[in-house]
Design brief:
- The protein is an alpha/beta fold and about 180 residues long.
- The protein has a single domain, classed as 3-Layer(aba) Sandwich (Rossmann fold), CATH 3.40.50.
- The protein is built from five helices and six strands, in the order E-H-E-H-E-H-E-H-E-E-H.
Length: about 180
């Protein structure tokens, strides 16, 4: 199964990119997923990004907090994703913050990006606070249990991906008639 890790920052050499690479390494070594990183700072939103999303069975969305919301480049990715590219595929939100924030991008993505895409966000999400102290071994001096939480969320994402893949074709057929709203 393929998982697309989306580094949602518009900045080159961002913490989102660094965290995405750490997660890519972890997923490659400890899960059934084959990970690919889509760095939105290096790869503009377009046909290539949507092709990667179409092939993926699941997503990990690494989102930095920009003025209390998800960055515009990440929102553009979701707005330009036509049904059924993301539809009925599970996604794990990983919000990052240089300080004690990070909750607002989770709320922003959940509230504004699922309606037309039909992406299925997991009930759980991750917030990596004080991201500069987040190590390649998924440790954090401020949050010692973070590595276990990441591991559990990746395992849940695998389960969601496996189960949704079994019913996705049926869901796409039913949802095609109402792909743009209520």
């Amino acid at each position: 199964m393929e998982v697309l890790i989306i580094a949602g920052s518009p900045r080159m050499d961002s913490q989102s990119s660094r965290v995405s690479k750490i997660l890519e390494s972890y997923v490659r070594d400890y899960s059934v997923f084959t990970p690919t990183v889509l760095n939105l700072a290096a790869q503009p939103v377009g046909s290539h990004s949507h092709e990667l999303a179409s092939r993926a069975e699941a997503f990990i969305v690494v989102v930095p907090e920009h003025s209390g919301m998800a960055p515009p480049v990440l929102k553009e990715f979701f707005i330009s994703s036509e049904y059924p590219v993301l539809a009925h595929k599970p996604a794990l939100i990983v919000s990052i913050s240089s300080g004690l924030g990070g909750s607002y991008p989770v709320l922003d993505l959940r509230a504004t990006t699922y309606k037309n895409t039909k992406i299925c966000y997991m009930p759980d999400h991750l917030i990596i606070r004080d991201v500069h102290n987040f190590g390649a071994d998924m440790s954090s001096s401020a949050y010692p249990g973070l590595g276990r939480r990441i591991s559990a969320c990746v395992q849940m994402l695998e389960l969601y991906a496996r189960q949704l893949s079994a019913v996705r074709a049926d869901l796409l057929g039913v949802g095609a008639a109402i792909s743009y709203g209520m």
